[in-house]
Amino acid sequence: MDCTSIADGLPPHTVTKYIVNEDMLMELFKKCPVCTRSCIISRTVIGTLLQVNQSCPHCEYAHQWSSQPMVNNIPAGNLQLCAAVLFTGSSFVKISKFLEAFKTQGISETTFHKHQANLLFPTINWMWHQNQDDLIRETIAGGDVTLGGDMRADSPRHSAKYGSYTMMDLKTNKVIDIQLVQSNEVGNSCRMEKEGFQCSLSLLEHKGVTIKAIVTDRHPGIQKYMREQRHDITHYFDPWHMGKGIGKKMDVLAKVRRMQDVGLWKKSIVNHLYWSASTSASGEEVVAKWSSVANHIQNVHIHDNTLFPTSLHQPLVGEQARQWLKPSTAACEKLTAILLSTRLLKDMEKISPQYHTSQIECFHSFILKFAPKNVVFSYTGMLCRLQLMAMHCNENATRVHSSTTAGELRYSITYLKYKHGDFMMHQLKSYIDALMELLFHNVVEDLRPYQELLDKIPVPEPLCAQFTRPDNKPDTSPAFPRTDTDEFLSMDGG
To answer: In whole angstroms, what is the distance from residue 4 CA to residue 12 CA?
Structure first.
């Protein structure tokens, strides 16, 4: 049976599905529609597909009924269930447990892996490259290009297997490129960020993007590369990363006995960092404004700097007065050493005055939905999940801020663990339909062009330790068998 045989002509992935109890469904086949006598019923189940063979021993009536059409000899429901799990960033293990608890017929893990590797990965990879080409054309047409870049590792500290470097167009907040680097490609996990940055920069310039400026964190390898080899691009440091670094040092200092007052200044000092960057016309002015905070925390508002001689705020009185730090105390001296460190003042000159990479951090946090850090994926599986997340992010990047019927903007408030009780406000704002259409109308009909594009991905050697064979020759075979559908040492499929 082919998908075009549906009565109303709708593709199978667009047809509404219903949950039907088995006993109620079988009631429809118990009686012969010709002689109304009892029939012999047999069932065949292939994943979500149910085929019912109905035969009447009295009048020789025979009929076969299928719950869903076939798409290129694949049950449409099986393929759509696999696609729905992957395209929405869900977990096959959780979905299968849900179906089992609901007593609903599903598919096996083997079926999911097979369809994922053979059909879904080529679909995702093809769609991402099409979207990326469109994004690059839009970026080039928009004039001067300012990019933001940052890396996300798949595990903390120095044991990461994968590092994904994200390049975002900071004017539109859309992900324009993602590079996935495996640690054994570059020697160790510490070198992955620089490699991802260089690969992304090279790819975008090869596609015709002329980059005016780049905003990154203060990674030493990237700093050196930009300083020595890319004088044509202005390199800025991200205020968000710098503020986070200062805040962490202040948190540590505030835990020391008799230095708790330092913690009261954290939010104000980080806000002052942003203000210094956004209101200054030069790097020297940024440094001058930033250095003034060392006097401000001591209730001194006149500074020995011609670029910023006095504070701009009015005198603080009453409830506006702060918990001023007393000069020459340990808390004041140690905090001042953090705020006026030589490296920090040098880097302040290159802080970004307008663009931040906070949107990239948001993107990285959402990747946890599609590629959790407690799950190990194959290289192709990880890359396709990153491409999925990029399409998800880009689709929502330009959505209009939700508002009430009265026209007031709506927000949601979330309390995050790492903020220790503080809150954040978020704006309340389908690539999936396009993926489903591409899968059912094109990929299943002719897989070759999609598979050829996927095969061009340079998959690195498996990450494993070498050991010596009995013949004293090094054995480079993986410690665990791996294919593009494997997700070894994991609880999920990928």
So the answer is: 9
pLDDT digits (tens, 9 = 90+) for 417-438: 545 555 444 443 367 888 999 9
Q: Give kind and range of the element (H or E) at residue 474.
A: strand 474-475
| Beta-ladder partners of 44 | 51
pLDDT digits (tens, 9 = 90+) for 308-318: 988 887 777 76
281: Cβ–Cβ under 8 A, 6 or more apart, which residues?
none
Dihedral pair phi/psi, residue 400, rounded to 5°: -75, 140
Phi, psi of 244 (to 5 degrees): -65, -40
pLDDT of res. 2: 43
Cα angle value 348/352/353 (rounded, 5°): 105
Q: Which is it for the CA torsion 184, 189, 195, 201, positive or negative?
A: positive
pLDDT at 119 over 60: yes
Count of domains observed in the chain = 2
* Gap between the Cα atoms of 444 and 72, Å rounded: 7
Q: Show which of 429, 447, 472 is a domain's final residue.
A: 429
Q: What is the pTM of this model?
A: 0.81
Residue 133 lies in a domain: no
